[in-house]
């Protein structure tokens, strides 16, 4: 029986991964979770994993499992002890990088939902071991089918404030930024969606995955078209699908899908579709889009500064637009750096965080 290791089992990607694993009769060898111990315990009862790891050792006594590892080191130890050929990495933020690198070092295939791995260290990651489970990158892969393309496009929902007046966005609260119009996901990705940092990260991921800087993003408010590929022959093809991660996960875990995972898109119900530009006036981070695609080694700077800026916004120590200003300031301050290896990436990450704090 084929088996997988699942990092980030209690988030929305993790929960969907377990539904797909059940469908394809895959064994769950290991589960890694953060703070949601109640849900983790239900998953342990349901899937009976050999190994479990959690973020905080203070929660260890609450976990219904004989073999619980803890913290960042615990995740790496779990990867070393496990045998599964596929690791699903749905951890959030910089914490997902070390497990991606460890899984690749161990020769595993990584079904990757952790954007930060490629944003921070794309040039040091073997792309042949990565299968993306972001809906946008899955859509691009699905459409390309090894045909020669000239340009790639991904779409953005526009986030919680896409219809707000810009002057009102100055006063927006953390809670309001979490009120996404199209879906419910974790705090960080929802804030990143509101600032458009999430889409900048996805452009960087696409650069590494598909080896091109000829990439752009537009707003498509219905989130039905996830990706478009402009081919060398002058035609453009779009990927339509519902807002559901089960399809990319199914391809990542099973390699082929021959039955309905999603209900088909009802074109008449969908009505008209429009594409809108992403402007730096509403999304200041967009100023550096071209520069970061041509200098992708600076992804580590954006990621560290962004994670610290989100903490400040959550604590009420900066306003919504100031988050992007903090990131842009760090970006210009550290624009000269270029890591030669992962050890240097780790040092740069610490330096940027210290500067932003």
3D structure, described in words:
It is a single chain. This protein is α/β, with parallel strands linked by helices and 357 residues long. The protein is 43% helix and 15% strand. A 7-stranded parallel sheet has the order 4-3-2-1-5-6-7, sandwiched between helices. It has a 4-stranded mixed sheet with strand order 9-8-10-11, with helices on one face. It is globular and about 55 Å long.
Task: Walk me through the topology.
Elements: E1 3-7, H1 12-23, E2 27-33, H2 37-47, E3 51-54, E4 68-70, H3 71-81, E5 86-89, H4 97-105, E6 109-112, H5 115-121, E7 130-132, H6 135-144, E8 149-156, H7 166-169, H8 174-177, H9 187-195, H10 197-210, E9 215-219, E10 225-231, E11 236-240, H11 246-254, H12 267-270, H13 289-294, H14 299-314, H15 320-333, H16 342-356
Helix pairs in contact: 1-11, 3-4, 4-5, 5-10, 5-14, 14-15, 14-16
What features would you highlight for this structure?
single chain; alpha/beta; Rossmann fold; 7-stranded parallel beta sheet; 4-stranded mixed beta sheet; 16 helices
Concise description?
This protein is α/β, with parallel strands linked by helices. It has 16 helices and 11 strands. Helix 5 (115-121) crosses helix 10, helix 5 (115-121) packs across helix 14 (299-314) and helix 14 (299-314) runs antiparallel to helix 15.
β-strand percent reads 15-25%
Spatial order of strands in the largest sheet: 4-3-2-1-5-6-7
Q: Please tally the β strands and state the result.
A: 11
- Helix/strand-derived category reads alpha/beta
Largest sheet at a glance? 7 strands, parallel
Please bin the fraction of helical residues.
40-55%
Apparent shape: globular
Number of domains: 3
How far the N terminus sits from the C terminus, by CA atoms, comes to 48 Å
The gyration radius over C-alpha positions equals 20 Å
By DSSP (H or I, 4+ residues per run), the number of helices equals 16
Low-confidence stretches: none
Helix and strand sequence: EHEHEEHEHEHEHEHHHHEEEHHHHHH
Average the pLDDT over all residues and give the rounded result. Answer: 93
């Amino acid at each position: 029986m084929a088996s997988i290791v699942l990092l980030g089992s209690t988030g929305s990607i993790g929960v969907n991964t377990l539904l797909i694993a059940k469908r394809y009769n895959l064994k769950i060898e290991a589960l890694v979770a953060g703070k949601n111990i109640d849900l983790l315990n239900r998953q342990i009862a349901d899937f009976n994993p050999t190994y479990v790891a959690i973020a905080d050792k203070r929660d260890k006594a609450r976990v219904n499992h004989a073999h619980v590892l803890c913290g960042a080191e615990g995740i790496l130890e779990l990867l070393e002890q496990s045998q599964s050929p596929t690791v699903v990495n749905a951890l959030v933020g910089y914490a997902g990088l070390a497990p991606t690198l460890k899984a690749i070092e161990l020769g595993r295939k990584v079904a990757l939902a952790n954007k930060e791995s490629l944003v921070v260290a794309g040039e040091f990651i073997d792309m042949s071991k990565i299968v993306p489970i972001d809906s946008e990158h899955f859509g691009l892969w699905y459409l390309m089918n090894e045909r020669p393309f000239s340009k790639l496009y991904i779409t953005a929902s526009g986030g919680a404030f896409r219809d707000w007046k810009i002057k009102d966005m100055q006063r927006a609260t953390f809670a309001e930024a979490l009120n996404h119009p199209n879906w419910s996901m974790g705090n960080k990705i929802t804030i990143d969606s509101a600032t458009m940092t999430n889409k900048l990260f996805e452009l960087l991921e696409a650069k590494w995955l598909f080896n091109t800087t000829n990439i752009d993003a537009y707003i498509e408010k219905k989130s039905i078209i996830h990706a478009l590929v402009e081919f060398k022959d002058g035609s453009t093809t779009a990927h339509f699908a519902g807002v559901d991660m089960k399809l990319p996960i199914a391809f990542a875990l099973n390699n082929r899908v021959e039955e309905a995972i999603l209900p088909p898109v009802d074109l008449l119900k969908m009505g008209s579709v429009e594409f809108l530009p992403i402007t730096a006036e509403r999304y200041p981070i967009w100023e550096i889009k071209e520069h970061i695609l041509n200098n992708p080694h600076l992804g580590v700077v954006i990621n560290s500064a962004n994670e610290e800026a989100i903490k400040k916004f959550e604590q009420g120590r900066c306003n919504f637009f100031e988050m992007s200003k903090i990131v842009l300031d760090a970006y210009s301050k550290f624009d000269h750096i270029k890591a030669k290896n992962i050890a240097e990436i780790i040092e740069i990450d610490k330096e940027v965080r210290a500067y932003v704090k």
